Amino acid sequence: MGYNVKRVLIDQGSSADIMFWEAFIGMKIPTDRLMPYAGTLVGFTGDQSSYSILGGRPTLNKLGAVVSTPHLKLKYPLPGGKVMVLCVDQEIARKYPAEDVKEVSLTEGRTIKIGVSLTKEDEEGLVTVLKINILAFAWSASDIPGIDPDFLCHHLMVDPRAKLVIQKRRKFGEDKRKAIAEETKKLMAADHI
């Protein structure tokens, strides 16, 4: 194997895996490996994809893969106990930025960002739905005060046999300290901490 494939999208929310014809041919995969699909594929706008491959849950599950979004890596086990790591070429990733967005005001002080590729009709429909349902969104911690910790609480899964380690104290600059204090006050005012 050993092919470089540019523009692969790993979508952990997708139930479909798609390899576009150019990538299929470029990787010299025999055509007898093609499998027909009789189901319905929903979600494409008819625009040409800028990706060569769209990988979803079926591939991730079959590989037993783990995705690390912050590190732009995908790891999966190989026979013999080895681990394969797929990495993003940072230079290529910088050449292809995410879709351009624009800021739209829903009401005074409440703005969102939406993709510029939406048709005028889709944009108007989306903005209308968001404006009608504006109260369904939490814009800050104070918008959702007093959440019962029994209903929603984060727990760290720590092995009780693990040795405790004291982390080195971090020193933050004045701006960071102010931001941390401000966010902590907001969470305390909303009874989240």
Write the layout of secondary structure elements.
Layout: E1 8-10, E2 18-19, H1 21-26, E3 53-55, H2 57-63, E4 66-68, E5 73-77, E6 83-87, H3 90-95, E7 101-107, E8 110-115, H4 120-132, H5 174-189
Parallel strand pairs: 1-3
Antiparallel strand pairs: 2-3, 4-5, 5-6, 7-8
What this model shows, in words?
The protein has 193 residues and is an alpha+beta fold. It has 3 domains: 8-95, no CATH class; 101-137; 140-193, no CATH class. Helices cover 25% and strands 18% of the residues. It has 5 helices and 8 strands; from the N terminus they run ββαβαβββαββαα. The protein has helices at residues 21-26, 57-63, 90-95, 120-132, 174-189; strands at residues 8-10, 18-19, 53-55, 66-68, 73-77, 83-87, 101-107, 110-115. The N and C termini lie far apart (52 Å). The model has no long low-confidence stretch (mean pLDDT 81).
Spell out the key features of this protein.
193 residues, alpha+beta, three-stranded mixed beta sheet, three-stranded antiparallel beta sheet, 8 strands, extended
- The portion of residues assigned to helices is 10-25%
* Total count of helical runs of at least 4 residues: 5
Give a short account of the largest sheet.
3 strands, mixed
Beta-strand residue fraction? 15-25%
How many domains? The number is 3
What structural class should be given to the helix and strand makeup? Answer: alpha+beta
Shape: extended
SSE topology string? EEHEHEEEHEEHH
Uncertain stretches: none
